[in-house]
Amino acid sequence: MTKYYLAVDIGASSGRLILGHLENGKMVLEEVHRFENGMVKKDGELCWEFDRLFVEIKDGLKKCKELGKIPVSMGVDTWGVDYVLLDEAGQVLGNTVGYRDHRTEGMDEEVYKIIPQEKLYERTGIQKEIFNTIYQLMAVKKKHPEYLEKADTLLHVPDYFHYLLTGKKTCEYTEATTGQLVSPLTKDWDYELIDMLGYPRKMFQKLIMPGTPIGHLTKEVQEEVGFDLEVVAPATHDTGSAVLAVPANDDDFIYISSGTWSLMGLERKEADCSLKSCGMNLTNEGGYGGRFRYLKNIMGLWMIQSVRHEFQDKYGFGEICQMAEEAKDFPSRVDANAQCFLSPENMTKEIQDYCRRTGQQVPETLGQIATVIYTSLAECYARTAKSLEEMTGRTYSRIHIVGGGANAGYLNELTAKATGKEVHAGPTEATAIGNITAQMLEAGEFRSVEEARTAIHQSFDIKIYK
Ligand SMILES: Nc1ncnc2c1ncn2[C@@H]1O[C@H](COP(=O)(O)OP(=O)(O)OP(=O)(O)O)[C@@H](O)[C@H]1O
Ligand SMILES: C[C@H](O)[C@H](O)[C@@H](O)C(=O)CO
Predict the structure, then answer these.
(1) Domain map of the chain by residue range?
(2) How far is the C-alpha of 433 from the C-alpha of 435, rounded, in Å?
(3) Quick check: is 238 catalytic?
(4) How far apart (Å, rounded) are the C-alpha atoms in residues 83 and 161?
(5) What region holds the Carbohydrate kinase FGGY N-terminal domain (predicted)?
(6) How far away, in angstroms, is 458 Cα from ligand 1 center?
(7) Closest ligand 2 atom, CA of 80?
(8) 88 class by beta-carbon count within 10 Å (0-12 exposed, 13-18 middle, 19+ buried)
(9) pLDDT tens across 54-104, in order?
(10) Of 39, 55, 239, 443, which alpha carbon lies 20 to 30 A from 422's?
């Protein structure tokens, strides 16, 4: 009988439930459910709609039942850093605020009064991003100390969905590392740091590694969806799952996990927490099997997504990509990682203002704006490739682009040109594939990560740009 594994992969812009199984050694995917995601304003704060997302997860499970394809296990992955605080009764405290909210402004300075930035990097190896959990918790401490007083448990977003599904409170390691409170040496919470910051120790659950079985569906969920299965933690940070699905086993490449963000980096056995690495703001996130994801967060296709919304979602991503190519001679560039693009009121205006401020030609049409974004991203990729090469003292000949952004052919071409490297684009559902792979490894369908990556390479289309 076919054994199906289910990935619940929720990105910042969309979520999907994807079934995977093996057929003659190849992985076969079937998308059963897809839905929109994004932050919405609540009480003046940018928040996630976790209740709605949980309904979507259950709707997807019901579709599995309708299809007669009951998975043996499932796992949830999402973006990084965000979390909920639960009280003793398991209720969420406060709004489910997302990482683009402005509440963390100035919280870096509050943290550095307690521990200087370089020391923090030395202990955690995590890049400074103003939205890291460490700064979000400082915002709560300053603005809503009552939540910290009442908090019994901190769960990151995938852990929260695992809790709603099983009733079990767990904290998965790869996602936890994004928060900047985990030690890369012990691969556990840095409790000393947590104490220094005055965050209640008891909120932090014992960390579990990807591949750990969590439990079965609660009676209520079973009754609603019509079946039971085991929940197994994947690399719950979506980038961790995406990197597990990079279709290569050598070490001559840099990857880009390309979706809302572009996460560009390398897989390494040790974390580099040096001052030089800190200066380049490269991060050492926890990966599958104890590896590290040494990478940079680049603003990514969030810029395209935002502009698309501002043009009333009239055009598909493929059409926008084509318009950008038609406007390819437009000369202006922006720093794709400038903070002004993290959460602007209006991305189109922000890009135009940036060009105006820097004395460049101001883009007006959608094609011109998109070409500014794509070319600026490609230039940022080229700079990041150089930083990674400088830090490792070697060069890499290929770039593997995985995730939805691998569909952006024009960006792939620009990336090949800007970096001088061969670009291998695909698979586009790498995150779901990595999620399923962790479950399959746990179930013994693959004997090793290498075997899984060979199967992934053989199972999905990969387009090469020279
Ligand atoms: N046909 C296409 N042509 C060009 N770009 C595309 C195409 N399809 C998808 N994309 C790009 O891929 C992005 C979506 O990628 P993906 O689905 O991996 O993101 P996500 O899962 O919502 O977010 P996250 O990266 O946070 O997980 C879109 O924002 C878009 O820019
Ligand atoms: C906050 C970002 O979502 C995070 O840093 C990034 O790694 C991610 O999760 C992309 O999906």
Answers:
(1) 5-232, 248-426
(2) 5
(3) yes
(4) 11
(5) 4-244
(6) 23
(7) 9
(8) exposed
(9) 999 999 999 999 999 999 999 999 999 999 999 999 999 999 999 999 999
(10) 239
